[in-house]
Amino acid sequence: MLSSINLIVTLISIICIINCVICNQVFTNSFYVHLNGPYGSDVAHRIAQKHGFINLGPLLNSPDEFHFLHRALPHSRTKRSISHTRKLKNDPQVDFAVQQSGFKRVKRGYRQLILGPEHLSLNQEPSDPYFPYQWYLKNVGQNGGKPKLDLNVEAAWAQGYTGKNVTTAIMDDGVDYMHPDLRENYNAKASYDFSSNDPYPYPRYTDDWFNSHGTRCAGEVSAKRDNGICGVGVAYDSKVAGIRMLDQPYMTDLIEANSMGHEPDLIDIYSASWGPTDDGKTVDGPRNATMRAIVRGVNEGRKGLGNIYVWASGDGGQDDDCNCDGYAASMWTISINSAINNGENAHYDESCSSTLASTFSNGAKDPHTGVATTDLYGKCTKTHSGTSAAAPEAAGVFALALEANPNLTWRDIQHLTVLTSKRNSLYDSKNRFHWNMNGVGLEFNHLFGFGVLDAGAMVALASIWKTVPPRYHCEAGSIQKTIPIPSNESLFLHIDTSSCAGKDSEVNYIEHIQAVITLNSTRRGDVTLFLISPMGTRSMILSRRPKDDDSRDGFTKWPFMTTHTWSENPRGRWTLEIKFDGDKPQKGFFKEWTLMVHGAKEPPYKDLPVLDKNSKLAIVKKAHELAFTH
Ligand SMILES: *[C@@H]1O[C@H](CO)[C@@H](O)[C@H](O)[C@H]1NC(C)=O
Ligand SMILES: *[C@@H]1O[C@H](CO)[C@@H](O)[C@H](O)[C@H]1NC(C)=O
Ligand SMILES: *[C@@H]1O[C@H](CO)[C@@H](O)[C@H](O)[C@H]1NC(C)=O
Ligand SMILES: *[C@@H]1O[C@H](CO)[C@@H](O)[C@H](O)[C@H]1NC(C)=O
Ligand SMILES: *[C@@H]1O[C@H](CO)[C@@H](O)[C@H](O)[C@H]1NC(C)=O
Ligand SMILES: [Ca+2]
Ligand SMILES: [Ca+2]
Q1: Is the CATH number 2.60.120.260 carried by domain 471-600?
Q2: Residue to mutate (ligand 5; options 483, 589, 591, 592; most atoms within 8 A of CB)
Q3: Domains of the chain: which residue ranges?
């Protein structure tokens, strides 16, 4: 039942994406083929051959959905290949066939100069030569950093957790699996190359080492300890798989879907450091098959516990908003932002209410403060960068938590993240976004989510964790009415909700809130949206995007998400504020707002012992108990 409701939520998201498709469309030589029966791969191969195609295999192991390629067609063209599609459609065993459109997905790397070696005299432990440069693992103030502002991984290692028996897949431009610091932790069985359809996701050579991204991410998770090579991974005894999927002229829905659905029982965590172009004007997200792959991953992957999808929140800087990126903003992904070594946000960081937590990356004035990790062809680097470098650190921390408790579900990992991330000394360098307290006493920040991951605290809580009660989805209310948005003041709309009280889908403890919104305006980038919860928490669900000059598409059923109201009671009055923020007066029309509440009916932390009276767990439990005695 849960998954059928998830499907409805999925459909809501799909409809909106269809509406956001760009005008200059590109068509690839890939075709989605739906057979009219579960005939399997042999029949699909014959059909492909008969019509001059190659069958690349099933979509998500399906017996009736396949990925065909036509080698005589160019990788991309601006016209549909009607005759090729017709050939397939006219086959008596084919239900329908769709030529795949191509779109852009870009790596979230911020490139900068390669630096010469520099020697630090630190108490080296682990003994790996680059460990002293890995300030994100152990910050002792090197290069102007703030001591103890780090992932606190040594505390997790000291508890005996190093990632054993956990696999993280790096969905990227390949992994140098012969690298001496990675080779022993490489999980070949869980790896695949979807860019060239073979089991060997080795990066393609280019003179500028453009395809070093995946290898750098892999080392952050899983580089070996005490072997005299490079540094150490956050989870240095965990396995890493390579899923090569970024290195072809255009991305297609089928490549994304097969990547995100690859071996969901062998892979625990998928790490993605890419997404729609971070140009501050794109509104885009996962399409049909990819959305299905994610939903299947969280509902069925890891033998039903759910795969963990970790996402880099985006490198679009202050002019972009990661709630316009349907991957980062999804409830099923954990979106991770970055801070630099003194606690400031990085200058390329985006902000949005769907970010759950943060880790670390480059951007400090001292250029020796990039992320040290493995590099192509057996080398090491100190300059991995962007929110790209932040997401794999989180994947490594989650691998430690999964070793501490292999029973954790995808939701448990999100709850643990909320409860153990720390404000530490993170702050907004421009002083726009402050730390606020939500209705149950959880501190959050529009840039950093619930703060920086704390591996030591996370594994400690994971090891005594009790799986949270079942998840429900409540449509809390909807307003469908065309209302002009005033150009000089805010439009306020209200939904009063019982949060499905008395129904099967009753939610009393919020996890994710979605505001599914349709509107148009003469300048989309000047529209700002705020959502205020019944307990008074104000989330900015859309910030000003000065580069977004769309005046045609607006937003169509776009699911803006906030994590800020985590664990609050959803009952009462929700307010949506719509306001133009720009240089010139604009016009626009609000059309629809549907409020979706996702979370638990029963109190999530009831059976957990409180070991520390000052912990967030203690604070939230107290808030929940008070709410109950009222
Ligand atoms: C490792 O993980 C596999 C698959 O999840 C599981 O079947 C096996 O029992 C685990 N082994 C250990 C030693 O925990
Ligand atoms: C994708 O979803 C839309 C809307 O649900 C549907 O019209 C379309 O046929 C789907 N495409 C594929 C390839 O399944
Ligand atoms: C995981 O679940 C199994 C079966 O429910 C149980 O026997 C085991 O003790 C659990 N392990 C942990 C670490 O909670
Ligand atoms: C906004 O403009 C309208 C119409 O010109 C006017 O009635 C209203 O008082 C203005 N509101 C503010 C806050 O300036
Ligand atoms: C926005 O919606 C209004 C009301 O439905 C409509 O009159 C207007 O033409 C739309 N504007 C654009 C640019 O689509
Ligand atoms: Ca090493
Ligand atoms: Ca973005």
Answers
A1: yes
A2: 589
A3: 26-102, 107-115+126-462, 471-600, 604-630
- Is residue 148 within 8 A of residue 136, CB to CB? The reply is no
Determine the topology of domain 26-102 in CATH: Alpha-Beta Plaits (3.30.70)
Q: Name the fold adopted by 107-115+126-462.
A: Rossmann fold (3.40.50)
Residue 393 sits at the vertex; the CA angle it makes with 340 and 369, to the nearest 5 degrees, is 30
Question: In the predicted model, what is the mean pLDDT of residues 243-253?
Answer: 95
Among residues 60, 58, 56, which one has the least CA distance to residue 35? 58
Please state the pTM of the whole predicted model.
Answer: 0.90
3-state SS record for 394-447: HHHHHHHHHHHCCCCCHHHHHHHHHHHCECCCCECCCCCCCCEECCCCCEEECC
**Residue 209 — very low, low, confident or very high, per pLDDT cuts 50/70/90?**
confident
Pairing of strands 269-272, 274-275: unpaired
- Ligand 3: which of 407, 408, 608 to mutate, judged by most atoms within 8 Å of the beta carbon? 407
| Tokens (6 digits) for 381 | 């680097």
DSSP symbols for 219-238: HHHHPPSSSSSS---TTTTS
Q: Tell me how many degrees the CA angle 212-214-217 measures, rounded to the nearest 5.
A: 110
